[in-house]
Amino acid sequence: PVPRLKPLRYLYQKELVLYAHFRGLAYLSTECHLAPRAFRAHPRDLLKDLEATRSNSVAALGHSGRVLALPGGPGGLGGGLGRC
Question: Where are the domains of the chain?
């Protein structure tokens, strides 16, 4: 398998929007009409509150997630299902 490249991984959304604006790139920002009722809005709000309290908290969470990642990819445990 080829590793996935994420060159903009460490950028915040506001930085991406500013980059697109200053480079003259088309940027479409629309939200699904069901988004306010979606579960992902709760963690997003929590992250915004954390960032307002401590500016580097979101970056620290991302870093700690990569440090604590289990070998074998997103599912961890070495990939594949083995015997119990």
Answer: 32-66
